[in-house]
Amino acid sequence: MIYLDNAATTIRKPREVVDAVTSALTTLGNAGRGAGAGALDAGRVVWRCREAVARLLGCPRADHVCFSANATEALNAALSGLVRPGDRVVTTVLEHNSVLRPLARLADERGVEVAHAPCDGHAFLDMDELERLVTPGTRLVSVTHASNVTGNLVDVARVAEMAHAAGALCLVDASQTAGAVPLDMREAGIDVVCFTGHKGLMGPQGTGGMAVAEGVEVLPWAEGGSGVRSFERRHPLDWPTRMEAGTANAHGLAGLEAGIAFIERNGGPAAVGAREHELARRLYEGVRGLPGVTVHGGWDVAPERCGSVVALCVDGLGSDEVADALAAGWGIACRAGAHCAPLMHRALGTERQGIVRLSCGWFTTEEEVDVAAAAIREIAAA
């Protein structure tokens, strides 16, 4: 199999990740639920993983890294815990449904006003229009660090500056970038970063969370067992307990810690991202200008602002037909369809056809990229 669906999940994990999860499954107890060796070891693993995430994302305090099952859960918790009835939220058309749908619910249930900044003709966020929408009194500006459809990057430091100038908070969805694009939330002035563990961080599925700047109040989204203060009527507000109800996924977090360690040993997000970006650029160069092939995104005007994704359409074919042909004819795994990003597809005019997304990862090879480019060439010529 030629795996070019890393924007959905990394299927080729570092050996250290597999070993860490395997060991954890047979040795770790329930973190915070006892004084036995297994429980204490689980607590240590979870804490080390907090420290690793804080280090990676530039979060000043490890206890402000709160884990969840995935970025979707973290985004729901962050949006629900930050946004109050009647607040105004500004977001963008680049967003995934894990932001759009919670905001729609908040609009229905809390009367929240939601505005969406558009993108330009190359699918980059229109920063001027975003700035116009971020008016004084705005509560939150929520943006993705990179489109999960096109891979186009967003200047989140500039977004945070806009938000703070209007007295708003800044929330960044780093699902597509954590581990592959440098992000220092302290340096950029970001208030909350949500992330997932199973993509660029090379960890297991079922891991993710949020990193919260000091002084930012996020109210608990879920309540339940905490391992501490069991006689209190409501969930404790201590960090990180306030955002973590129930048993921690210590097995998965052991793997996530190993994934981050692998990234750090290989030069960090800048080095990992540079390798993946060059592979995607090679793929783009292999399909650019092909008759009947349209590449969406900013590769032709600002490749330095693109991630490791090549998003394309083939005239006369649905994205599902192209993906099926790639899988059947060449063993290439990719992603077709709407990618849970309806506003992005409306902006691109690809609602009916969808888009074929080919996304490179650390373990992708130049040979695999060349096969994919040749396959697209053959499909388009048929």
Written account of the structure:
This protein has 382 residues and is α/β, with parallel strands linked by helices. It has 2 domains: 2-10 and 269-381, Alpha-Beta Complex (Aspartate Aminotransferase, domain 1); 15-265, Type I PLP-dependent aspartate aminotransferase-like (Major domain) (Aspartate Aminotransferase, domain 2, 3-Layer(aba) Sandwich). The protein is 40% helix and 14% strand. It contains 12 helices and 12 strands. The chain has helices at 15-27, 37-57, 71-82, 97-110, 127-133, 156-165, 185-188, 250-265, 268-287, 319-330, 342-348, 366-381; strands spanning 2-3, 65-68, 88-92, 113-117, 140-144, 169-173, 192-196, 208-212, 293-296, 309-314, 332-333, 356-359. It has a 7-stranded mixed sheet with strand order 2-8-7-6-5-3-4, with helices on both faces. Helix 9 (268-287) packs parallel to helix 12 (366-381) and helix 10 (319-330) crosses helix 12 (366-381). The longest helix is centred in the first third of the chain and has 21 residues, at 37-57. The radius of gyration is 21 Å and the shape is globular. 52% of the residues are buried.
